Structures are given as structure tokens and as C-alpha cells.
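ENTRY TYPE: paired fold submission
RECORD: A
CONTENT: sequence, then C-alpha cells
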Amino acid sequence: MDYKAEITLNEKDSLTDMLTAEKNLVKIYATVMTESCSKGFRTLVKNHLSGTVADQTDVFFMLTDKDYYRVESAPEDALAAVKKKFAPVKKQLN
């Protein structure tokens, strides 16, 4: 039996799929960076990583500009609590 389904992605689904793919590529390139030792190869991967991060950012902003992906700001009191929690760690690192 031959079965062929027509599947059409809308703009939101296409952009969400692209965002997921770009995020996965960033993870892969980051892993390759930490596992490689050739300077030339690391430079090549670093360039691809930078480009992929830029692409991921562009797709993310397309989604938010079109109101397909909502980002809510954290309340100021929640931010203050996290800053206070990690203040000792920050002090140790300085």
C-alpha cells in the first residue's frame, strides 16, 4: 500500500523547528570544541559555532517579533533574591 500524506507546516511551526535545529547545532558545536585538539579544526568549529549562535538568535527574534514565542520578564523581587543567593559565589570569583 502506498501511503502519502501531505503535511504543510505553518510559519510558526517552521520557525519553531528551525529554532530547535539551531539550538541543537550549538550544543553539538560546543561539544566538538571541548573534544577537539587541532588548532585549525577548533578555529573552523569556533567560526561555525559563532555563525550558528547568530542564526539561532535571528530565528528566536523572528518568533518573538511575530508573537509566536512569548518571553516574560522576571519580577524584580525574584531577581533580587537570586542575586542575593549568589552574591557569596560572585565574591569568591572576584
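RECORD: B
CONTENT: sequence, then C-alpha cells
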Amino acid sequence: MLAIINSIALQGLEGIIVKVEVDVSSGMPAFDLVGLPDTAVRESRERVRTAIKNSGFEFPVKRITVNLAPADIRKEGPVYDLPIAIGILLASGQLCVNDNLSHVFMGELSLDGSIKQIRGILPAALAAKKYKYVSMVVPDANAAEAAIVQDIDVYPAGNLRELVELLNKGELKKYTVDMENLLTLEEKNFPDFADVKGQAVAKRALEIAAAGGHNVFMLGSPGSGKTMLARCLPGILPNLTFDEAVEVTQIYSLAGLIKPNQSLITSKPFRAPHHSASTASIVGGGRLPRPGEISLAHNGVLFLDEILEFKRETLEALRQPLEDGIVSITRVQSAITYPAKVMLVASANPCPCGFYLDKEKECSCTPNQIQRYLNRLSGPLLDRIDMYIEISRVEFDELAGAEAAESSSKIKARVENARKIQLDRFCKEEKVKCNDHMTAPLVRKYCKATAQAKALLKTAFEQLKLSARSHSKILKLARTIADMDGKEVIDANHMAEALQYRSMSFLRM
């Protein structure tokens, strides 16, 4: 007898419908699995066999052939355990249903028959909706995640025996999720700007960066507060919208970072990989391609602390994602794309000993050592950074002062106001939500400047020998500063402040 069960294969965030075809026929007992399965899928034969027996069913002592169609797409992971088991039980007559079993089935089986959490259930649910399927059977731990997709009925399953009983009775229980409270913010203990003494210039720069989604590079001596400032940044970023939260959750689901029974990632991602991280872990890839840190920071912040300690090839691999907002991973059999629209925040010491720019401590490095150290950042990568900030040592009087600095909540209110202006401006533009995402035509359309501001930009462009990309980034930065000032047209003071943040003089001796 032949049974056909629906499932889904994922290629990156894109889902493809897989028909799990199970044939149980007379002949020499065998269990053949075909359809370009990887090792994890081939091993499902033993998991399925044992799970069926331990769930109280009879495993057919017949010739079993399982085909995962289409056969030219590689199948990965244990997600096909459940559809294979359901197909065997249906083909052997132990599962009797009146309809054609049109649900999409996904889940990993334990040897005792329990159904375990799997990765990638949200992009799979979105793919099921795309292909006009209306119901899914998923592990209990994944139900909250899958249920946020509207127009899909999600049926949670805890173990194989209970699932078969419910299917036989036609009594699957639909999982419901409270859509109104989905965006309730997770409690994240980000440091508050109120705890950062001094550093008024750096705080102003980070506020502008948050308001426009701009990339930032901070250079300063050890202990000057670079890391603390960066870790305060998520606390002033606008909250995720529902669509943004779904995008982030898809990536985390694919990476296996969703907690059991969690539905949405509701806070801005903040990723801070160590400088020893490999290129594949930062940009994505590997033997079985997975999202990297830059994709996990999508719609949030990627913080590269001590960026000059990262391997050069790793930093150079960031150039294309920072420019395009996506990561493309190409293999012989497929090409996978992950979203990667991030705010890059980088920090570094100015020299190997760290005290080249320090006014109190003497630097012990030679000029050649300093220049070689700074040259670890290439010109093309530096050109993709919008703002350069020199972080100075905080004086004792500022540290000992009792007066509290401005809190993150007050700064966040100003950032949200500036972002609202941008959202209203770009309401008709697809996928443009902040000034840093503007394309060249949008820069020409919205970055209108006074004659004095244009003259200032022209002088700086010629004297500093800026690139066309730098010209565009300065205009975007000036547009953000004007938005924070509530101005429609970029004035000379907005342009002057934007140019101030483009100075890279402290990066060259």
C-alpha cells in the first residue's frame, strides 16, 4: 500500500514542499530510504523503527520503501522522522483516516516515541502558507512559534501514540496564540546610559547612529568606556515591529536558538562575537550552511569588540553584507541568501599597547607598529562605516560626580521620534525603514540641502578626497541629524556635524 505525507525542506529561509512517499509491500524485509537524504535523514530508519515499536504499534516485517520527493533536492536533518512514521502506519493500516491526511508533518522522534523540538519551524510554516496548505502537525515545543503564522492551523503533538489516536478519532486540538500580546518586550538587562559618566560626544554620536541606523567605529585607550557605550546602545533602539520580529525569529529558528514554547523574538538582537570567531561563524556558511552572527544581528546590532584583533579575511567578508544587507552563500547544488541588515558597532585600541591617543599614559609602540596595527582595517571596509568617534579618558571629577547622566529611556524617546519621521517619509518605499537604508535615488530625493551646506560638503569632498560612497553616507548622516532637529532641509550645521563624524585622521599617522 502507498501513503503520501506532506513535509517541508528548507534551503536557507526558503521552504520547499517534500512529498514523503511510503510504500509497504510484500517481499524480503527491508527499509530503503531514497531521495538524496543526508546522514541524519538516513539514520531516521532506526529512530522510526524503534519509536513505532515503543509506542505500541507493529513495525511491518515487509519491504518498506520511502522516497523523499523531489529527489534532486538534498534533505537534511531529523525533521522527516514524524512524516515517515505516519506514512508507515498509514500504509500498513494501523492509522485509519477518512480524509487524505493533507496536514504538513514535521518532527524528530525519540526512541520512546516522543516528538522533539526541531529547528526552522517558523520559515517552514510560512512556506506551508505560501503553498496554500492550511494545517501543520508540529512538536509541542514548536507550536507557539508556528502559530504566529496566520491562516495556518497548528496542531501540537507530544508523542507518536497520542498523535495516532487523535488522528484516528479526527480530534486534533488546534493551538492558539495570544496575538495581541506577542510583542510584549522581553526583559533584557542592557546597561543604561545614565550609568556612563562623561563621554557626552560619544553619547550624542550613538544617539544619531541609533536614530538613522548608521555604522559606528570607536577608537580609544583601554578602559575609556567603548564596550560599555556599545552595550548601552540596544537600550535606545526602537522596538521591533511585528514584521521585523518575524524576520528575526525566522533566523533564530533556523539556527536552533528558539527556546521551547517561545513564539517571537521581541527585542532588538545584540550580537557580540569573540575576535577568535571563524569567518563562517560571522557571515554564515559551513558544511551545512547556517546563519552567521551578522544574520543573527539582523534588525539589531553587531558589535565587534577589538575589531583589529579579528582575522583580516573575516573582516573583508563583511564588506558585501554591509553594503547589500544580505549574505549570499553559494554551493554547487544551491545558493542560499540570509538577511543581514545590521548596525555595525566596532571598537578598537589605537595601537598594540593601547595608549597611542591617551593624554596621560605614554605609548610604548613605534610608529611602524602603530601604522601596521591600524592597517588591519582596509580602506574599503572603513568606507562602509558612517561615523568615527575618538573615545577619550574620563576624568576623575566626572567619575566621582554625584549628578546622574541622562537615562536611556529619555534618549530612546528622541530616537523613536526621529525614526517615526523616517517611517512616514519612506512609507511608500519597500524595505526602507531608516536613513541608512536609502538607495541612491532616495538620497537624491530626500537629502535636500541648503546652498551653504552643499558648499561645505563640496569643500570637504575635495580636501579629504572622499569617495562616492562617503559622499552618500555623509548626506544620509546629515539627513538623520536634520530629522533629530525637526528640519525638512539639511542646514550647514547639520552638514558640519556629519562631516565631523567622518574624520579618520586618528586612524592614520
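NOTES ON RECORD B: The first helix runs from residue 39 to 42. The longest strand covers residues 14-25.
STATUS: closed
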